[in-house]
Amino acid sequence: MLRFALGGLRAGPASFAGPAVALLLTVAVITLFGSLVLTAADGGGDERLAMIGGAFGEIAMLMALFVVANTLSFSVRQQAREMVLLRTSGATPVQVKRLVRYEVLLLALLVSPPGWLLGGWGARWFLAELAARDLAPVDAVVPWSPWPPLAGTAVTLLVGAGASKIAARRTVVDRPAAAMARTAGADRLGLLRGLAGVLALGGTVPLLLLTARQPVEKAAQSALLGSLLCMIVAGLLGPALARPAVALLGLPFRLAGARHRGDGGGALAAQNLRGNAHRLSSALIPIALLVGLSTTFAAVTGTLQQVAPPGAQAESDVWLRGVELAMLAGFGAVATVNTLVSLTAARRREYALLALTGATRRQLMRMLGSEAVLTAGAGVLLGLLVAAPMSCAFALAATGSALPVVPLGSFGPVVLGAVALTVLTVLATGARATSRLNTSEAAAQ
Question: Rounded to two decimals, what is the model's pTM?
Answer without folding.
Answer: 0.81
